[in-house]
Amino acid sequence: MKPILVILIAVFSAGGGWWYWQAAHEDPVKYQTGVVMRGDVTQVVTATGQLNPVLNVQVGSQISGNILKLYADYNSPVKENEIVAVLDPAPYTAAVHQADANVAFAQAALELAQLTAKRKAELVKEHAAPQADLDTAVANLHQALATLQINQAALETAQVNLDHCTITSPIDGIVISRSVDVGETVAASLNAPVLFTIANDLRKMQIDASIAEGDVGEVDNGQAVNFTVDAYPYRTFHGVVAQVRNSPVTVQNVVTYDTVVSVNNADLKLKPGMTASISVVIAQHNNVLEIPNAALRFRPPEDAKKLVPYVPGTPPPRRSATPAQHIRHDGAHTIYVLPPDAKKPEPVQVHLGISDGIYTEVLDGLKDGDVVVDAILSDNPALEPQNHGPGRRPF
């Protein structure tokens, strides 16, 4: 029995030694890699904005009164000078009649003053009346003439107010908002109350977007814009930058600039007030070498093999922070490639072009098919995969 026991102990010892040697010489570090390949890279500036009609007119009332009739409602198409509402004209009609009577009274007073002045002039000529009487008669004549003009102006004002009881549309368009109902009283004491909001043509709209000051320098007129709205999450709409306004808007120390995007809404799917998430196309390069942005941020630990395996329930080891990208003074970036049959990544200097936030164009330093390192795969939290972002394309 003892020889068999000795043999078994020797076999197990040899196997354990071989396993220990194999584990000691095996590289425990596993790398997540990506392949350099050709594709299309589009650099964009993102922002949010609101859809509005190109021409939006608020129709109000210059006078106060009760709404007698409404001839337009929500979504009603209207033509220029078409009647959309009527105020109760009764008080303004009475004002016109009173002003008309005042004009007639002033006209009669003027005629009397003219006759009086004429008679006084004849009496003074015959030395039958003093000159002072003639002067008084002429002054009364001038006052009567001025009174007539004042009353005529009051009559014109009353007539204008009466005409304003009939409210018409100033443009061709469609009613997108109605703020009053029949019988409601509108008061035009300080500000003209808004009765309707009319959009000129909803087939042509615009987005008023707020571009951050850090991005506004890259935005210019004529650039293509892609945008989405919550109402149609799976559809991408298109527009063109029409204007970048120079007036800054500061909210909580954040400076933005209003950028107007022209939109063709021929199918009338887009509605005023919708929130649009826009992407202004700054540059687009097709069929270029590209690498994932995670490869730009990857930095290997100084001594990855010496990192102890992670034991569940213990706090992860602390690691020193590394910069997001290593950039040399000549503009070159350091990335790490994994040659065939190599166990360690090797640094390579590359020059980069535009980026879409997920992939970046490579100008030189790599070739199609090169394998770049994105992250380290390990049971150790210090070596967990880094920089995984949504929308990553598989290699």
Describe the structure.
The chain has 395 residues and is of the alpha+beta class. It has four helices and 19 strands. It has helices at 2-25, 90-125, 131-163, 293-297, and strands at 30-35, 37-53, 56-60, 65-70, 77-78, 83-87, 166-168, 173-178, 185-186, 194-199, 204-212, 224-229, 232-251, 254-264, 275-292, 333-337, 346-355, 359-364, 371-377. It has a six-stranded antiparallel beta barrel with strand order 2-11-14-13-12-15. Strands 3-10-8-5 form a four-stranded antiparallel beta sheet, with no helix packed on it. The protein has a four-stranded antiparallel beta sheet with strand order 7-6-4-9, with no helix packed on it. Helix 2 runs antiparallel to helix 3. The chain is elongated and about 165 Å long.
Biggest pleated-sheet summary = 6 strands, antiparallel, barrel
Number of helices, where a helix is a run of at least 4 consecutive DSSP H or I residues: 4
Helix content: 10-25%
Structural class: alpha+beta
How much of the sequence is in beta strands? Answer: 35-45%
Q: Any idea what the radius of gyration is?
A: 43 Å
Overall geometric form: elongated
Taking strands numbered 1, 2, ... along the chain, how are they ordered across the largest sheet? 2-11-14-13-12-15
Would you tell me the overall average pLDDT?
82
Topology as a string of helices (H) and strands (E): HEEEEEEHHEEEEEEEEEHEEEE
Q: Which segments are poorly predicted (pLDDT under 50) over 5 or more consecutive residues?
A: 303-325, 379-395
- Termini separation: 59 Å
